[in-house]
Amino acid sequence: MLLLAAAGLFFLQACASTPSSPPPTPKGHPKPYRVNGNWYKPIPHAKGFTQQGIASWYGKKFHGRRTSSGEVYDMYAMTAAHKTLPLGTWVQVRRLDDNRRIVVRVNDRGPFVHGRIIDLSYTGAKELGMVGPGTARVEITALGERRETTEGETFVPVDYYSGQFTFQVGAFSNRDNAERLRAKLEQTFTNAHVVPYDRGDMVFYRVRVGRCNDLETADQYERHLARSGYPDAFIVAE
């Protein structure tokens, strides 16, 4: 018990926070995931990433469904699914046979079909002229995360190993339930707060605690939360 208490004190100090405005929508934390018996490990950043292979596309069957990023899939937006690139990464997709190019944002995981490297939205596929054939050989070049500056548009590689991390303990459709959990958590943990998330069809209230400045400390804090009775808590990057 003394050891656990000491560990708890360390994490409260290491991940202490000062009052601030509600955090922005998280990009997520690249944990390994499993699909059809295969494990996939998202990469920590998109800097220097290129890849050649087969692109496919997905449309009406998935239109309106939730993507891996939490967004609702819009087949008419310029988005894509990739197995390992950080969610939120903008990529250039160049068709190899005619050099046509598009820029899309990765907001989903897939395609989980052997030999295919990216699933484009319907509009992305239409821009590349591959809706009819269904597939095309392409080259992907990661651009990073899009930022607007005074000089125009720029792209910055996403790095998940440094920055601000917090921990999601629960999510509720009822705000009162979220506030009750927040009040309970703030008796033990720092920075207990509620973040509304509009999924499109309904609003969820995400309950989060803690704040760390590096991924190594965040991994330890996540394990501390599990030992403290919150095994489903997970890291999110702000």
From TrEMBL:
Coiled coil: none annotated. Residues 159-238 form the SPOR domain. Its EC number is 4.2.2.-. NCBIfam families: rlpA. This is Probable endolytic peptidoglycan transglycosylase RlpA. It is an enzyme of class 4 (lyase). PROSITE patterns: SPOR. Keywords: Cell wall biogenesis/degradation, Lyase, Signal. GO terms for molecular function: lytic endotransglycosylase activity; peptidoglycan binding. Lytic transglycosylase with a strong preference for naked glycan strands that lack stem peptides. HAMAP family: RlpA. Belongs to the RlpA family. Pfam families: DPBB_1, SPOR. SUPFAM superfamilies: Barwin-like endoglucanases, Sporulation related repeat. It comes from Desulfosarcina widdelii.
